[in-house]
Write a structure and sequence with these properties.
The chain has one domain: di-copper center containing domain from catechol oxidase, CATH 1.10.1280.10. It has 447 residues and is an alpha/beta fold. The structure holds copper (II) ion. Copper (II) ion binds next to loops. Keywords: Copper, Metal-binding.
Length: 447
């Protein structure tokens, strides 16, 4: 197995990696190896054998690394073509569905765009608006704040809402609609309180699936979301994160590990107040206390492999009309192991973003979840009849633990401290009701 899973606190499964990785990892592999997974795994395997360093072994690396590499290249370039076709079909469905007499039509539709296609002014506008929200005072009421003293700013209100919602909105029937509206509320706040006027950005993880650090959103410039965390060279333990379904996944150390030190969200410019909640050591008051600190990141070319073009194509194509499959594949790979595209998006950013509860504390959360929403929308858009848009699946607790009722179109979704509950029906289409947006294709550059 490529990673370690503890179920209900039992012994990790997985043979040699278990013993090895539990000892901790040495310095992450040199960047020169990162775009060459076969070499990376060979080198880390050798280091692992000597006890110097260990990363999980890729599940599909067998026999010759070179052959695997060539096969992977071919698979991914074919998948990119298929992805483009899926995107085209989705866009034609959106255009058709908005050309009717509804208030959402081709002139009112707002387009969300991949980060790299934004102009410098648009990038600056979004970054400044996020900073603005992180300067505005919280609107959470005083009683709540007396038990959640980490809530100081308007930005923190969103982090708190996510923390309190987490047990009900992951790996279940609320996962996609909750996060769609959560982003919509965040976007609305940026526009109404912080004079944000540009397109809402998404981060297409498939673009740099071999090495997420190559994506310009992480280049550390003033027009990025900040760089990787500072490289920690001393031995580090894997981070044991709790995920829905009573599972613990050990996320091995990767290429950074320290504070974000470059760009607009560096330790001098942006501060996290709440958490950690989803891993140890928790922040004060179970992560609700005031715990000011930097954003930490640990970009991981291991997990980014799980967000390659072929993973997205496989999710959309192989799930067919099965929404349950789509939701499951968001968090579990094709073999049922933790690390679907949603999970792997968080895990390839690391460490602040690993916290299932408090992950919105890293502003990359918004760009990542816009891409998750985009994948859902693209899946919906493969069906011009609109039936996929009316589908619901799953129960009301994360991983159905504890067991709960089925979600229907009339079930209410709650957004603690942020706004009124909504029915699932109000949240399933991006071009109806409160919503009127679509995702512009990756690679369409705005001038
Ligand atoms: Cu979430």
């Amino acid at each position: 197995m490529g990673f370690l899973i503890l179920r209900h606190g039992l012994i990790p499964r997985g043979p040699s990696t278990a013993a090895c990785c539990m000892l901790g990892s040495g310095p992450p592999p040199k960047a020169t190896y990162l775009s060459k997974p076969s070499l990376l795994w060979l080198v880390t395997w050798m280091l692992c054998m000597t006890g110097a360093a260990c990363l999980p072994h890729p599940q599909n690396l067998s026999g010759s690394g070179v052959l695997w590499r060539q096969g992977a290249d071919q698979t991914e370039s074919t998948a990119k073509e298929r992805l483009a076709a899926l995107e085209t079909r989705y866009l034609s469905t959106v255009v058709t569905s908005t050309s009717s007499a509804s208030k959402c039509n081709s002139t009112t539709l707002s387009w969300r765009q991949e980060w790299t296609t934004l102009s410098a002014t648009q990038k600056r506008g979004f970054i400044n608006a996020v900073h603005c929200l992180a300067r505005l005072p919280s609107k959470t009421n005083a009683t709540v704040k007396s038990r959640a003293r980490g809530v100081v700013t308007r930005y923190d209100d969103f982090v708190l809402s996510h923390i309190e919602s987490t047990p009900f909105v992951h790996t279940n029937g609320f996962f996609l609609p909750f996060h769609r509206h959560f982003l919509h509320m965040f976007e609305s706040e940026l526009r109404s309180e912080c004079r944000f006027t540009g397109p809402f950005p998404y981060w297409d993880w498939t673009l740099y699936w071999e090495d997420p650090g190559q994506h310009p959103v992480f280049d550390g410039s003033e027009l990025s979301f900040g760089g990787n965390g500072a490289k920690i060279s001393t031995l580090r333990q894997p981070t044991a994160i709790g995920i829905p379904g009573n599972l613990t996944v050990l996320i091995p150390p990767a290429t950074g590990g320290g504070c974000v030190e470059t760009g607009p969200f560096s330790k001098d410019q942006f501060s996290v107040h709440l958490g950690p909640v989803g891993y140890e050591p928790k922040g004060p008051d179970n992560g609700l206390g005031y715990n000011p600190r930097c954003i930490t990141r640990d970009l991981s070319p291991y997990w980014s492999r799980n967000t390659s073009p072929s993973k997205v194509v496989s999710l959309i194509d192989s799930c067919g009309d099965d929404l349950g499959c789509v939701i499951t594949r968001m968090d579990f790979d094709e073999n049922g192991a933790p690390g679907g595209v949603h999970a792997a998006g968080h895990w390839q950013i690391g460490l602040t973003a690993l916290d299932v509860y408090a992950s919105p504390a890293d502003p990359m959360f918004w760009l990542h979840h816009a891409q998750v929403d985009r994948v859902w929308t693209m899946w919906q858009g493969q069906d011009p009849t609109g039936e996929r848009t009316r589908m619901v699946w799953g129960t009301q607790t994360a991983g159905n633990d504890p067991p709960s009722g089925e979600v229907t179109l009339d079930t209410l979704v709650h957004f603690p401290h942020l706004g009124e509950p909504k029915t699932v029906r109000e949240l399933v289409s991006t071009v109806e009701g409160e919503y009127c947006y679509a995702y512009k294709a990756t690679g369409v550059v705005e001038r």
